[in-house]
Amino acid sequence: MSEILLELLKSRRSIRRFKPEPPPRDLVLKAIDVARYAPSARNSQPWRFIIIEDPVIRQRLGGIHIYARPVLNAPLAVVVACMNEESPTSYLLDCANATIYFMLAAHALGLGTVWIQTLRNVKEIREILGLPDNVTPVSLLAVGYPAENPALRPRKPLEEVVYLNKYGEPLKI
């Protein structure tokens, strides 16, 4: 079973083209349910998930910057927002963990996602979604059934990214 799980992790791809039919809400909620199990500092669980089905709101979110365009053709989006006070020193990492848990769960359920960076557009997203100042939108995810099957993009070799004991000390693999 562990090899199957490792292959699942390695087979996830960023999906930017989606089939038009929306996934059932219970499938999206199943992925969110899994995301609740992501690690967070002091088990603070500062995340909130906003499912965006409204096409007008998706249109506005898809226009926040050029890389948000996949939201325009996705049948729905999910925003992972963080309650800053619930984890003041690590809320960004906590919600990044929840984001990747959601993405992996969605992949396991046959859905495609792409993580769209939001931190340069926090004020605009807060306005679109009615978020208070103490809530930071950490990620925007386009979600749906994949209409593409992207190939694996090259990865750096282990020798280039792993050191032993100190930075720059090569690990002989």
UniProtKB/TrEMBL annotation:
Keywords, ordered alphabetically: Oxidoreductase
Coiled coil regions, renumbered to chain: none
GO molecular function: oxidoreductase activity
Segments forming domain Nitroreductase: 9-62, 84-145
Keyword Aminoacyl-tRNA synthetase on entry: no
Pfam families on file: Nitroreductase
InterPro entries (UniProt xref): Nitroreductase, Nitroreductase-like
Keyword Oxidoreductase attached: yes
PANTHER family associated with the record: NAD(P)H NITROREDUCTASE YDGI-RELATED (PTHR43673), NADH DEHYDROGENASE_NAD(P)H NITROREDUCTASE XCC3605-RELATED (PTHR43673:SF10)
Family: Belongs to the nitroreductase family.
Protein name: Nitroreductase
UniProt source species: Desulfurococcus amylolyticus DSM 16532
